[in-house]
Amino acid sequence: MTKSELIEELSKKQPHLPPKDVELAVNCMLEQINQSLSSGERIEIRGFGSFSLHYRPSRMGRNPKTGGAVALAPKFVPHFKPGRELKERVDASKDSYKITC
Amino acid sequence: MAITKADFAEGLFDEMGLNKREAKEIVELFFEEIKSSLEVGEQVKISGFGKFELKDKSSRPGRNPKTGEEIPISARRVVTFRSGMKLKARVEAYAGTK
Question: S-S: A43 plus which of A21, B3, B7, B15, CB 3.0-4.6 Å?
Answer without folding.
Answer: B3
